[in-house]
Specification:
Domain DEP: 211-289
Helix content: 40-55%
Number of domains: 3
Domain RGS: 328-470
CATH topology of the largest domain: Regulator of G-protein Signalling 4, domain 2
CATH superfamily of the largest domain: Regulator of G-protein Signalling 4, domain 2
Number of strands: 12
Keywords: Signal transduction inhibitor
Organism: Verruconis gallopava
Region (Disordered): 297-325
Length: 489
């Protein structure tokens, strides 16, 4: 089976590329480049590329994903399923996209250039760019030697904050709980203080290479007649968010920083009457008392008591643990802040593919239902694209030996293999095939949901570092409300 798909960058209503499409385009480009050493002045720098190489390759990119497996009907026969995705664009557009990669902090100059106009300019991936590429390669089973060597280099150190987004609009979730989760990472478990103002305000971003330290702060800073502690600049806020989160557009960093201000987590000390965040290096901010409580720098009254009380007490009230964990899983999927933390927990325990598959199938089924409702002429083209997406999901998560192979029921796996290896030779068969695939994917999604609920949720609840936020989010209270709605409905 061979499905092809020509991809266009989806754009948001504020003319920004959808984050996932943008990251996939970047990663596909990096895989296509040789990433060989290039000489810069008197030294050779490994795993680099030139502007000309990047712009040329972006003009016609092709990415194929294949899986070989025994034919379910005849094990002696090998069947290969392949999904090929192509991107194409004019040279000037390619140059503009490369510049966007630079602005997103995916790449950085190795020879002091600040744009892609010079054909011979040399570029290398940032730790952020390598993290993006690594996630793409893990999902798609990419093991080319040059990529493997890059990702195993000492520069691959980043642990990005994976921000949750609205699937239809790609907008960041802006609810207070999600903002506070990101804020905790932004300021760190303790202040990242520097003894001198020049150190805290420097433009160097090398300290953020792991993503595990908070924004750089000056231990003391005199503003007017008053001395403030743990201060940082507006520029430092934007730099940290851009370097340590999955944002690709600077405008989003300013929006999130504004939410830090709106929720009373940070305050401007040189212009206290201004409610508007400024990204200027001359604008000085500090963490408020509320921000210190949210960050866990000071003890909150809500944090006292038994950290397991919210779990143990609810079990006594709610009956069977299995049902409780199923309900908790539902709430986690619906709550962006909890989902962000749950994703982080799954990443730490090497199970993130379960959540990734669940959410990808959710998006796939939404696109499938939209395609079925489509009444205009391009309907078959949309169905063809949707079917190609299904093969991409199958090759990534469900095919035998796939890079993120999931643990699902054997009979369901066999049914999927039989369906996905069956040829589709006309339009009617393609529509019928998509219907069957959607049904099977829905079953696989339910299977993965149950696995996460029974195995991952209990471990997540017992993880000490999430105890405070789970208590603040009142997970079991949300479960009770959800159950109440279900009963009343």
């Amino acid at each position: 089976m061979h499905q092809t798909s020509s991809r266009l960058l989806r754009m948001t209503d504020d003319d920004r590329p959808f984050t996932r499409d943008f990251k996939d385009l970047f990663s596909t480009l990096m895989v296509s480049l040789p990433l060989t050493p290039h000489r810069v002045r008197f030294a050779k720098i490994d795993h680099t590329f030139t502007s000309e190489e990047a712009v040329t390759n972006l003009g016609s990119l092709k990415f194929s994903q294949s899986n070989r497996m025994p034919d379910p009907k005849d094990p002696s026969r090998i069947v290969t399923t392949t999904t090929t995705t192509t991107f194409s664009m004019a040279k000037e557009m390619a140059r503009s996209v490369c510049q966007k990669f630079l602005e997103a902090r995916f790449v950085e100059s190795a020879d002091g250039k600040n744009d892609f106009t010079s054909k011979s300019a040399v570029w290398q991936l940032t730790p952020k760019g390598m993290h993006i590429l690594q996630r793409f390669c893990q999902r798609n089973g990419i093991q080319q030697r040059h990529v493997f060597e890059l990702l195993n280099s000492s520069r691959n150190t980043m642990n990005l904050v994976i921000l949750e987004r609205e699937p239809e609009t790609d907008k960041l979730h802006r609810d207070q709980a999600t903002v506070e989760v990101v804020f905790r990472r932004f300021v760190g478990t303790e202040p990242n203080v520097k003894n001198s103002i020049s150190s805290s305000d420097s433009d160097s971003l090398s300290e953020y290479q792991t993503g595990l330290v908070g924004v750089k702060m000056a231990k003391e800073r005199k503003v007017g007649d008053r001395v403030y502690y743990n201060t940082f600049t507006g520029k430092a806020v934007v730099d940290w968010l851009m370097d340590c989160c999955t944002m690709v557009d600077r405008r989003e960093t300013i929006e999130l920083a504004q939410l830090f201000c709106d929720h009373g987590l940070i305050a401007c000390v040189d212009n206290p009457n201004s409610a508007r965040f400024s990204q200027s290096k001359s604008s000085i901010y500090t963490v408020t008392e509320k921000g210190q409580r949210v960050a866990g720098w000071v003890t909150s009254s809500k944090s006292s008591g038994n950290p397991d009380a919210h779990v143990n007490g609810s079990r006594a009230r709610e009956g069977p643990t299995r049902d409780s964990n199923t309900n908790r899983m539902t709430v986690i999927l619906q709550d962006p802040a909890l989902r962000l933390l749950f994703r982080e927990f799954l990443r730490d325990t090497h199970c993130e593919e379960n959540l990734a598959f669940y959410l990808d199938v959710r998006d796939f089924l939404a696109n499938y239902n939209a395609a079925k409702r489509q009444q205009t002429v391009p309907k078959l083209e949309i169905i063809r694209e949707t079917l190609a997406a299904a093969y991409g999901l199958y090759n990534a998560f469900l095919a035998p030996g796939s890079p993120c192979e999931l643990n699902i029921d054997h009979s369901l796996r066999t049914s999927l293999a039989a369906r996905m290896t069956r040829a589709v030779d006309d339009d009617d068969a393609m529509v019928k095939s998509l219907d069957e695939v959607a049904t099977l994917f829905d079953q696989a999604q339910n299977s993965v949901f149950k696995l996460m609920a029974s195995d991952s949720v209990p471990k997540f609840l017992r993880e000490p570092k999430y105890a405070n936020i789970l208590r603040e989010r009142n997970l079991d209270g949300q479960v009770a409300v959800t159950n109440g709605r279900a009963v009343s409905g």
